[in-house]
Structure formats: C-alpha cells, structure tokens
Design brief:
Length: 408
C-alpha cells in the first residue's frame, strides 16, 4: 500500500485511565446513567478517524507499519465532550449589563427595557458574515480548549432573514451543528409575536431548513407562548427539522407537555420545573438539557436534576454559552456544577455531556463513547484519575484534545 493511501493511525499509550459511559444505549437513564467503564493502564488506537481498539497496555498487540504515538503517562482519557446547547454566533458583548446585574438589576428587567437579547441582536445585525464566522471560530476555539469536540450552535441573534441565514452559514462553515433559533425573541420592527412568526415561517424557514438540523424556540413569558410555539414547531417539523425548546427557565409555560406532544428531541433549562413536569418528562423520550452555568450566572434556582434522574428521565448537560445568561464555554466547569449543585454523580455528569448530549444532536451512534467504531474524538485530562473532570473546579484540566484521530 502506498504511503498516501495508508490509514492514519494514532496510538495513545500508557494512559493511567480510559473512562467511558458503559453500554451502547442512548440516552442513558436511571442507574445506567451512572455506569462508567474504567480501564487502568490503557491505550486507545485511532485508525482513520475512528477508534480501532481500546484496552489494557498488556493486551496491546504489535502494530506493523506507520503509527504515530502519543505518550499518555499521568493522563486519563474521556470521550470528546459534546456541548449540545450553545448560542455561539453573536457579535458584541453584554459586559455592561453583567456589571449592572452584579449591582442588582434583574435579567428579565434588562430584557424588558430593550437590553438583553435585543441588544445582542443589534450588534449581530451590524456584523457582516465574515465577522460572524470569526466570532463563531473564536468561541469554538475556547470550547475546544475546554474539551468540547462536538458543539451545537444556534442562530437567534439576527431575527431577520439576512442575519439568521448568515448565522446558520457561519455556524456550518466553522463545523458546529446548526440549530435555527428563529423564535428567540420578537424583534423591534415586528408588531407582535404572531406577526413575527408569520414572517419567520414564510420568509426564513424554507432556507433555514436547508442549513439547520433542528429548530428551537424560547417559550417564556415575554417571548413566545405555547400556542405560538406549537405553530412554529409544527411548521419546522414539516420542513424536516428536529425540534428543541427553551422551556421552564423563568415560568412553567407548557414547554414539557408540548415537547412530548410534538416528539421534540429536548426541552432545555427546566429551572422552574415542578413535580408534574418531572414525571411527565420521565415518562417520555424527550431529553431534559440542564444548564447549571446559566442558573449560576443569573442567580436562579438550579434545575431539579436529582428528581429527574431518579424518576427515570434522560438528562444531558450543556453550557448554554451566550453573552447574556451564561458567558461560559467550559463543560468541565459545568460538570463541577453538576456534582456540587445538582447532586449528580461524576459518572452521571460524564454521561450527560457525552453520550446523552450526542443523542440530543442525533449523533449517539458515532459520538460520546470510547469504543471500537466510534469517532476518534478524545479528551486527555491532565490527571491520572478521570474524575478530576469535575473535581478540579475551574482548573486547567484539559491537556489535549484529539478530533477524528488527529491531535489539536
Ligand atoms: O438560553 N433564554 C433564552 N436564551 C438564552 C439567553 C440568551 C441571551 O441572554 O442572550 C438562554 O439563556
Ligand atoms: Fe439557551
């Protein structure tokens, strides 16, 4: 075989541990969520972008031909982290608003006064497509350095045809998984939410459906109500998009029943979800995406993670990276919050931001596990015990990421 056609191989050897969610199911729920398979003194062999073999060093067979080697001594490997909920495409920042909130202004008050999401809409509309691409690239770079190898990113700071479609193109071109958040808010030029939805569904959806994989909506007091969300999501589903919802962030406004009725992939936030919502979600196939960095950043109650998991719901963890409610790109920090604030086990946190997050993105057959045949996306942690992922609060825990069998 000529050198040009030889498979690219990378052997990560002498790892202190390889840790991966156990089994092959997705999403993991109940006690299965907390099952982690740990191999000590281990190797991972990446072959042509996939995982070719994983096991104990003592069982490693001799490899003929060209193989790049990476010394894993003192490190542990986990699957590349999957961030299934980010708003990575925006221009400007909200640092002034953050400083005002630090002195007592509330997020909802700032939003109602034309700040909040709408101030980022103004900045994003003022950027050109190359500027949006640069912003997405910068944000994805931060995420990659924190161990995220698969990232979803939403539009939603354009809310006009040109900027929404430019956002989706920028997200795609930078390699993130695009979600059309065409109903993130009502822009100032629209008379009301219904008039805006008429426009978005008629003028933006046809092209957005070609660019995005899923649609999302902010179902909340001051944004869109359940009837409007049904209309928007029905049309998006008919156009071939998977469905997601922002729900129960500030008020329980019917997001969970609607998500279940429409067969959505996920309902995200859930800070105000009560017992009825917990049991309804647990009896469904809809995943609850928990965003504890957002609850922390806004000083809001944490979502009822323990109740959801104990009732049997599928849960995922994500950053919600955005300029207003969660300027945080780090899934390891989110895992620390899960372990300290959500009463989740470290094992549960790992599964929630790998295999279960991959399921939310329709990628659980290829992403989220270190097992033969999966994509060779790995994070090497700078610790011989993988649980430092959550233990090292805000620490520089990521030594290296490997994506598709390549370093960097
Ligand atoms: O998920 N809640 C709505 N959307 C975002 C916040 C966006 C923003 O504040 O810019 C969220 O928290
Ligand atoms: Fe969000």
């Amino acid at each position: 075989m000529s050198a040009a056609s030889a498979p690219h191989r990378l052997l990560v050897r002498d790892l202190a541990q390889v840790a991966t969610p156990a089994g092959t199911d997705a999403p993991l729920r109940g006690s299965a969520l907390g099952q982690t398979e740990v191999i000590e003194d281990a190797y991972v062999l990446c072959e042509d972008g996939r995982i070719g073999a994983v096991g104990r060093m003592r069982d490693l067979e001799r490899l003929d031909g060209d193989v790049d080697e990476l010394d894993g001594r003192g490190k542990s490997a986990i699957p590349g982290l999957v961030d299934c909920h980010t708003h990575a495409c925006f221009a400007g920042d909200r640092v002034d608003e953050f400083a005002m909130r630090a002195r007592g202004a509330s997020y909802e008050e700032l939003h109602a006064a034309g700040g909040g999401i709408l101030s980022t809409v103004r900045a994003t509309r003022a950027a050109d497509e190359e500027g949006l691409r640069e912003a997405v690239r910068r944000h994805l770079g931060w995420m990659r350095r924190s161990g995220s190898t698969t990232v979803e990113a939403k539009s939603g700071y354009g809310l006009d045809r040109e900027t929404e479609l430019a956002s989706l193109r920028a997200i795609r071109s930078e390699g993130a998984v695009p979600t059309w958040l065409g109903a993130h808010g009502v822009p100032p030029e629209s008379d009301d939410a219904d008039a805006y939805l008429d426009f978005a569904l008629a003028e933006v959806l046809p092209e957005a459906a070609r660019l995005a994989e899923a649609a999302d909506i902010f179902l909340e007091r001051g944004a869109f109500d359940a009837g409007q969300a049904r209309r928007y999501l029905d049309a998006c589903r008919d156009a071939g998009l998977a469905l997601r919802l922002h729900g129960d962030q500030f008020t329980e406004s019917g997001a969970i029943p609607l998500a279940i009725e429409l067969g959505a992939r996920s309902v995200d936030h859930l800070e105000t979800t009560g017992e009825g919502g917990v049991s309804a979600l647990a009896g469904s196939d809809v995943v609850g995406v928990l965003l504890p960095a957002s609850a922390l950043f806004l000083g809001r109650p944490m979502p009822p993670a323990r109740a959801l998991i104990d009732a049997g719901a599928g849960v995922a963890l994500a950053t919600d990276f955005n300029p207003g409610s969660a300027f945080c790109e780090s899934l390891p920090l989110v895992c620390s919050l899960a372990a300290t604030q959500l009463r989740m086990g470290v094992e549960e946190a790992l599964a929630a931001c790998t295999v279960n997050a991959a399921h939310v993105l329709g990628r659980a057959e290829r992403k989220g596990r270190i097992a033969v045949g999966y994509d060779a996306d790995l994070v090497l942690l700078d610790a011989s015990d993988w649980r430092y992922l959550a233990y090292h609060l805000g620490g520089e825990i990521v030594a290296e990421t490997i994506v598709g069998g390549h370093r960097g």
